[in-house]
Amino acid sequence: MQLELHDIQGTVLRNRPMPYFGSYVLFSIENAAAARTLIERLIPHVTSAADWDSPKENAWINIVFTYEGLRRLGIPEAFLDQFPVEFKMGMAARKKILGDIGRSDPAYWDLPHGNTGFHVGLLVMAGSEQLKEKKLKIGHNAIAELPGITLIARLDVGVPPNLREHFGYADGFSRPFIAGQGGEPLPGQGEPAKAGEFILGYENELGKIAAGPGPEIFWKNGTYISIRKIKQDVMAFRKFLTEQAGSKEGQERVAAKIMGRWRSGCPLALSPDKDDPTLVADPMRNNAFAYYQDDLDGKITPPGCHIRRVNPRDGLKDSIVDARLHRLLRRGAAYGPMLPEDATEDDGIERGIIISFINANPARQFEFVQSQWVNDGDFISEGSRTDPIVGRRDIKDDYAYPDKPVRKRIKGLPDFTATRGGEHTFLPGISALKWMVSQGWNP
What UniProt keywords are attached to this protein's entry (predicted)? Predict the structure, then answer.
């Protein structure tokens, strides 16, 4: 199978650079003609998957739209009606399904979404701060003298200097390998995933062509990106570890048991008793594990830990759930400054992570994982226990895992995170962007 890499926006298939500097830049649309002019100005700067490995420069731009943005652009209602219901409703309206309750309720969100003015967004990525600003200038120039297009938000993200997210975990080790992307799978990636799980226009794991609304040119080589802004309470997390274990080694062990990896990135599956940072730098080793043969009962990597919930691998092989139908491509980056290691109190500055989940079927992929695997434990015989790091706490607030000499149970698990924004967005193919500019729906 050949993927049309030249027509697929680059963020879908390729890894970000390291170090990584990025921005989410959000606009509102009040004038359809101005919006089409904006897109026309940006198209020459949109990076495809074809030139991602050897771009002219180590920086790029991709474009996404909300449902309301496509409507304001002038896309016919007959096409819009064919979009998935979760995309049409918007993520804020899906709060009960996604567990965005309490302090995660959309009433407290500070990142605009489809119902509060976010209509079109630029995802900017770069290998340096200077290159990022250069790409952002392209976006600012594109809206120059365009009444009816308003810049409403900018969120700068990246990888902190210590290459860890705010809770101290190294990130980015596991992702599906997509058939047709080129190269060979790394150990631990398993069999290649069907491209239609992540890109419209190709066969998915159900044996069907993943399709979108309207004419094929509108959806072919496009996808959905489910964006989540997650605030992290770093001081609460640190205090929790201190309460659970007095020694530094004990705290690291607890952190590993709730994540499934040591904070260095070393997986428990490969080094269950102590951290082994030498594994982390080797891509042939740092993700080379499965569960079915060696750890089906979760004595090494706890069944309820974060990495096993969001990616069960082969651990559900004998269950009624086909994990291959619920895989996600995840792009995560931190926002806000790091809390100093010697801090004894929170400094009042917001920090967290913003995650882009790439999926061709948001209901079957992102929303299923969030509602059934993150916020419910029934699929792993954990009852209503939720993810120990990012799960909701209103139903259950404890966590248990096998340990020596006896099973360990943690009661009163704090809320370490809170949702501060989210939206289902549509990332069209490059041909679709040109079709939108030309108003190809008009006879």
Answer: Iron, Metal-binding, Oxidoreductase, Peroxidase
| Distance, CA of 265 to CA of 286 (rounded, Å) | 8
Give the pLDDT band of residue 53 (cuts 50, 70, 90). Answer: low
CB 417 within 8 Å of CB 306: no
Residue 304's pLDDT is what? 96
125-164 confidence digits (pLDDT tens): 998 999 999 999 999 999 998 999 999 999 999 988 788 9
CB 181 within 8 A of CB 194: no
Q: How far out from the chain centre does Cα 47 lie?
A: 19
State the Cα angle at 188 between 184 and 189, rounded to 5°: 50
- For residue 145, give every residue at least 6 positions away whose Cβ sits within 8 Å of its Cβ, in sequence order, or none: none
CA distances from 379 to 261, 383, 390, 428 (A): 21, 8, 17, 34
DSSP conformation class of 85: H
Contact 267, 302 (CB under 8 A): no
Rounded to the nearest 10 degrees, the angle between the axes of helix 248-259 and helix 234-244 is: 110
The secondary element (H helix, E strand) that includes residue 13 is none
Run of H or E including 154:
strand 149-158
| Per-residue confidence band for 52, with pLDDT thresholds at 50, 70 and 90 | low
Q: Where are the alpha helices (DSSP H) in 15-94?
A: 32-42, 67-73, 77-80, 85-89
439 contact partners, CB below 8 Å, separation of at least 6: 36, 74
Contacts for 208 with CB less than 8 Å, ≥ 6 apart: 196
Q: Burial, 291: exposed, middle or buried (Cβ in 10 Å; 0-12, 13-18, 19+)?
A: buried
CA distance linking residue 425 with residue 357, whole number of Å: 10
pTM for this structure?
Answer: 0.96
DSSP string spanning 171-208? Answer: -----PPBTTSSS-PPTTS-SPBPGGGTSTTSB-TTSS
Q: List phi, psi (to 5°) of 345.
A: -140, 160
* Residue-wise pLDDT tens digits, 335-374: 999 999 999 999 999 999 999 999 999 999 999 999 999 9
Backbone angles phi, psi at 123, to 5 degrees: -105, 110
How many angstroms separate the CA atoms of 333 and 313, rounded?
23
Element (H, E) at 308: helix 306-310
Judged against a pLDDT cut of 90, whether residue 51 lies above it is answered with: no
Residue type, 205: E
Q: Quick one: which of 69, 124, 158, 176 has its CA closest to 425?
A: 69
